[in-house]
Write a structure and sequence with these properties.
Low-confidence stretches: 46-50
Oligomer: single chain
Structural class: mainly beta
Distance between the termini: 41 Å
Helix content: under 10%
Radius of gyration: 26 Å
Length: 408
């Protein structure tokens, strides 16, 4: 009854599950062979001998127009693991987790933010082509548009100045004192001066625009724009009157603009954004970007306390060398069926060589090892394997080839 009462007020078992969730986001990878292993922690209140047995990782490669899910396995007390199948180069992968609350039966979505849906993301087989950390130069970025009207808090390249209310017992940071680049201090910020006593004089009180330089992106395959931003946003008078940050792309040197990102949510921490540019415009040799912060104001008085920082802007594209590396010195090897159930066939080049076959689990433990000859061989003892992902390794002399396989 007590748990039911708490759940009716939104502070019961579902909230407990959400607050115990921890996950280190998967990072960009060049791996196109092996599954991407996502470990996370999740705890539930123990009652009626119920446990968490409906935990899934949900992922998408097309911005959630379609989705796939994989069941997470418990690997320890409160510790879970889910494995995303290997993807092709050029994949932008987004994912989140779901769990069924065993007490209420309701599905809970777990992403990078507890109170909103904000999936994790990473890139497969991409390479950095252009990078701006703004440490020693402004990268030909410019500030100011004819429609700008902010008189304070304009974009500027500077070292940010921490402004927080911690001395007053309130854990609120309006502006961080650190840029995103680990080794530097500079970034673009909407007003870098001030302190907790006079910060109002330095925040944006209107619209301010930051323009990038001009880029020829036609030489890059499936270019992605990435940037990191810090954004604090809080109304001063009316809840609806708050600032916003918008990002636009142009493929004709600024003649026309297309919105690719918009946000009013206050995060007050560095956040990563990846945008696949061809989803919005045709890629040309006249690409340009602009970052706009706009705050409603009356005269020179801002209606919201808004602060934005931009850093580590980069262009990434498909790393063509990844697929080349994977194919160099590789014989024609066919492994089928994938997925398999009770038999796995391996077709090797017809020669006089002998090959050593090993099947490992994702912990690196060798579960099956045997010698086979060239031609087609059937491995029947895979029936002993549990359902899941494995790595099959084929060795011949000094050559080693590894491939992911799936057992149903």
């Amino acid at each position: 009854k007590i748990l039911t009462a708490f759940n009716n007020h939104g502070i019961g078992t579902a909230l407990y599950l959400a607050t115990t969730f921890e996950h280190k986001p998967l990072e960009d990878t060049q791996n196109i062979k092996y599954p991407y292993v996502a470990d996370f922690t999740l705890y539930t209140l123990l009652y009626d001998n119920k446990s968490l047995d409906s935990v899934f990782l949900v992922y998408s490669t097309d911005n959630f127009y379609s989705i796939n899910s994989v069941k997470a396995e418990m690997i320890g007390s409160g510790k879970f693991r889910a494995e995303i199948p290997p993807q092709n180069i050029g994949t932008m992968l987004k994912y989140y987790f779901t769990v069924i609350d065993p007490f209420t039966g309701k599905e809970i979505t777990l992403s990078s933010e507890m109170n909103e849906f904000k999936p994790f993301s990473f890139l497969v087989g991409f390479k950095r082509q252009i990078f701006h950390d703004f440490e020693n130069e402004n990268a030909n970025f410019t500030v100011g548009d004819a429609s700008d009207n902010a008189t304070t808090g304009k974009w500027e390249r500077a070292k940010p100045n921490e402004i927080d209310f911690k001395p007053y017992g309130v854990d609120i940071v309006i502006q961080t004192g650190k840029n995103h680049t680990s080794y530097g201090s500079q970034c673009y910020v909407t007003g870098a001066g001030g302190n907790v006593q006079n910060y109002i004089q330095f925040i944006p009180n209107g619209k301010t625009t930051l323009f990038s330089s001009l880029y020829d992106l036609t030489k890059y395959n499936k270019p992605v724009l990435r940037w990191w931003y810090w954004f604090f946003n809080s109304p001063r008078v009316v809840a609806q009157l708050i600032g916003r940050i918008d990002v636009f792309v142009s493929n004709n040197d600024g003649l026309n603009w297309v919105l690719i990102f918009s946000n009013t949510k206050s995060y007050a921490k560095w956040e990563k954004v990846d945008v696949r540019l061809e989803d919005f415009v045709k890629i040309t040799n006249n690409m340009k970007f602009k970052f706009i912060v706009e705050v409603p104001a009356q005269g020179q008085t801002a209606y919201s306390i808004t602060e934005a920082l931009i850093d580590d802007i980069e262009i990434l594209s498909i790393d063509e060398s990844v697929s080349v590396k994977e194919s160099q010195n590789s014989p024609i090897i066919d492994i089928y069926p994938i997925p398999f159930v009770d038999k796995l066939n391996i077709s090797l080049p017809t020669n006089d060589a002998e090959y050593k076959i090993e099947i490992h689990n994702l912990l690196g433990e060798c579960l099956i090892s045997r010698m086979i000859s060239s031609g087609v061989s059937a491995i029947d003892d895979v029936t002993q394997l549990s359902a899941g992902y494995y790595i099959i390794t084929i060795k011949s002399g000094k050559d080693i080839w590894s491939y992911p396989i799936i057992k149903l």
